[in-house]
Amino acid sequence: RANVALAPPVCSNVTTSQTWDYIIVGSGAGGIPLADRLSEAGHTVLLLEKGPPSTGIWGGTLKPKWLENSTLTRFDVPGLANEIWHNPTGVVCTDVDQMAGCVLGGGVAVNSGLWWKPHPADWDYSWPEGWKSSDLVDATTRLFERIPGTTHPSTDGKLYLQQGFEVLTSGLNASGWEFLVPNDHPDRKNRTFGHSTHMFSNGERSGPLATYLVDASERKEFTLWMNTTARRVIREGGHATGVEIECSKNAAGHAGVVSVTPGTGRVILSAGAFGSAKLLFRSGIGPKDQLNVVKNSTSDAETMISEESWIELPVGYNLIDHVGTDIEIAHPDVVFYDFYAAYSKPILNDTEIYLRNRTGILAQAAPNLGPIFWEIIPGEDGIDRHLHWQARVEGSKNTSMTITQYLGTGSTSRGRMVITPQLNTRVSVPPYLRDANDKAAVIEGLERVRKYFAPISNLTWVRPASNQTSTQFVDSIPATPAVRCSNHWVGTAKMGLDDGRVANGTSVVDTNAKVYGMDNLFVVDASIFPGMMTGNPSAMIVAAAEHAAKKILALPAVETVAAN
Ligand SMILES: Cc1cc2nc3c(=O)[nH]c(=O)nc-3n(C[C@H](O)[C@H](O)[C@H](O)COP(=O)(O)OP(=O)(O)OC[C@H]3O[C@@H](n4cnc5c(N)ncnc54)[C@H](O)[C@@H]3O)c2cc1C
């Protein structure tokens, strides 16, 4: 009937009698593998996710008409990956001023699935003892056995619409670059190129949602609550006793306080670089200025832990993202495919072959990515800076390719995130090009690529214009998230040996991923990264979660530190 408002779904109140060995907040790249490994070790695990289900196997429902008779949702189909930019409602986090997925799977439900075995320097350059590339061998092996990734996602083994790949790699070949299968040679990221590599399997998104989470869900020790938002960690001094939760808006989730097993239980925050930092602030852990914002907010004034129990740590500092610099070329051979139209006005043959046997262009990630190519630029400060270039068939013309240059490992610029009185997170200091050598690497990389593409006949430059110097071009792009953002945010709860409670200390978690000043509160997700990596981050975050699980499981059952 018209004009009858539906009653809001009711949240179930939790029973206080049940306790959990581990409560994990957030089901993204960090949270899912942790939940699997901890429940595999026989511990009871409660995984809290504020968002609704995403992929079909978890009960997701968001889908275009052409998927109506299938179990798949828009999240399952690689060719619909960029729908997040067209239709973000109900999918993206509304409390973050950047793009982030707030559905089951977080970033690994909404991203393009790019999947890279980390370069050894990604660990060795900035991570502390115990987290060097040699320490991560087992974790990386376990991860890539589970999710090997593929350069050829269509189940017929073919790549579709590769004209753009051929055009650009003709220039790289002519300039002496080498083609390789990227994940077979993670340590070779200098003047090499390859096909884009994705976590996809069987022509579908796959990744942690289809592997780790499936295995966890088959264990009696594991419980998943979706549509359930963690407000804060409940703690007595340095000991977390549980998590206060509330149901997400317009959803039937859970509400109340969930408790960890008395004495031995642990809480792990895996809510993403902004989400975990926000939860720390709301739990009285962070810089004093941010804790005061929470204390003075309408929503938390009454529940905020008293000031004597605050733990002052540099949460929100050390914010990092790949510095993104977009260039654009055009070439008559390039063929554009309208992936956005594939949602509502698809090409019938493409949806038919995808539905029949997961073949064709829709098994590839939108918007037709590749080639991906790498070069290392030595800096005057003695630091090698890694550039990862990612091309896609998209731009201002039908024959355009946009190529994003990501400045990663070796970059030294850092920013800051803060919380507003409405308890939304905000990037207050953008982390882009604050260091002269970072900027020099970006300019030098661009200068070189212009030379590498020079042998390509009929290629025209759209951006930078041919009469613009590389320095002028880089200077013309503001160093703000609006134009530089790569959606690869990390670093807000940095791991390190220098305890952030002490003067000049910069770290929020120790090398067991445990928050300084707490005996049973951990952070395991993008937040703990001390520095940037070469390629897109999700596989490295899963590897970090594998390693962290091992370290956490090896800790003595009861470990008590003095209350702050
Ligand atoms: C549009 C886009 C495209 C990207 N493309 C790629 C790519 O192709 N390849 C790649 O490697 N990386 C890509 N990334 C980055 C990658 O997805 C992220 O770096 C990664 O997912 C971060 O992992 P995480 O575990 O730290 O957080 P997330 O994956 O963001 O997971 C955090 C989870 O916590 C939940 N949460 C937050 N707060 C709360 C709370 N209070 N209570 C309960 N739950 C909460 C969120 O809903 C979310 O599910 C992309 C990111 C975006 C946004």
UniProtKB/TrEMBL annotation:
Question: What does this protein need as cofactor?
Answer: FAD
Q: What protein name is recorded for this chain?
A: Cellobiose dehydrogenase
Q: Where is the Glucose-methanol-choline oxidoreductase N-terminal domain?
A: 99-323
Upper lineage ranks?
Answer: Eukaryota, Fungi, Dikarya, Ascomycota, Pezizomycotina
Q: Which family does it belong to?
A: Belongs to the GMC oxidoreductase family.
Q: Which organism is it from?
A: Daldinia eschscholtzii
Q: Which residues form the Glucose-methanol-choline oxidoreductase C-terminal domain?
A: 412-545
InterPro entries from the xrefs?
A: FAD/NAD-bd_sf, GMC_Oxidoreductase_CD, GMC_OxRdtase, GMC_OxRdtase_N, GMC_OxRtase_C
Q: Name one Pfam family in it.
A: GMC_oxred_C
Question: By its UniProt entry, which Gene3D superfamilies does this protein fall under?
Answer: Cholesterol Oxidase, domain 2 (3.30.410.10), FAD/NAD(P)-binding domain (3.50.50.60)
* Protein residues bound to FAD: V103
Any one Gene Ontology molecular-function term assigned to this protein's record: flavin adenine dinucleotide binding
State the UniProt keywords alphabetically.
FAD, Flavoprotein, Signal
